[in-house]
């Protein structure tokens, strides 16, 4: 997937967003008592001001593929945020020179479609566009891509069985629609199953779990991709990604394994690390605040 080098080089589009903040901020993906953390393979179903950083590494058929993803979100209104994102990619393969560089820059927006506290339910719609030839020559695409997506979350805090209440499900479904006729369109879909220890101890029953484990959320993600046309129709790739996320006051971090679901995806276990900075908590009256109320 992707390799991190020169990670301090924040893309210019992200810097531009980072500099435009004023007045009090909104929260993360929260519905009622439920916090839905930023998952590592797809977005959480909320909006706000965040700086997610994700590094992943896999090996397949002798090639090593690393990816360092960086994004920044800036709230414009309480229900709408702007997004800028890119990746630093590195590919090494025996007998050939290493390839590395920044991918194309993507810009977009995300809308909070619904948030219901009583049912712990939340959903967001986003659309972004990656722009052709805006990345490094070695890895950039020479075509642009539209990517609409819907993300949702559902907590189980209202079920009768107390031991089930800390569970939550999040999911994502979206499309990659390139403007090149030779490049296939892709359906991106994923699910996560989470068990929130903070929810268990604060809202169900305190069971004596101490720091740092009291802020952990064990999670299993299923990021999948299905080709829709142009020579690969119906072919699906993806991973089973078990791991854990730790939630802090201003940051969260997570680690997951990446187990391929089929031979087409790969033949070895990868790893993914994530670190998310809560800019709306760090700068609630500055960058983290919506521009308009």
Write up what this structure looks like.
This protein is mainly beta. The protein has a single domain, classed as Beta Barrel (Porin), CATH 2.40.160. It has three helices and 16 strands. The protein has helices at 12-18, 197-204, 279-282, and strands at 2-3, 30-31, 34-35, 50-60, 63-77, 80-93, 96-102, 106-116, 121-130, 145-155, 167-178, 186-195, 216-227, 236-247, 251-260, 270-278. A twelve-stranded antiparallel beta barrel has the order 4-5-6-8-9-10-11-12-13-14-15-16. A hairpin with a 3-residue loop joins strand 14 and strand 15 (251-260).
Task: Offer a few descriptive terms.
two-stranded antiparallel ribbon; globular; twelve-stranded antiparallel barrel; Porin; single chain; mainly beta
Look at the helices and sheets and give the structural class: mainly beta
List the total number of helices: 3
Q: At the first level of CATH, what is the class?
A: Mainly Beta
| CATH fold assignment | Porin
Number of strands: 16
Helical content class: under 10%
Number of domains: 1
From the 3D coordinates, which CATH architecture would you assign?
Beta Barrel
The quaternary organization reads as single chain
Sheet having the most strands: 12 strands, antiparallel, barrel
Percent in strands: over 45%
Which stretches are low in confidence, meaning pLDDT under 50 for 5 or more residues running?
A: 1-26
Q: What is the overall silhouette?
A: globular
Distance between the termini: 39 Å
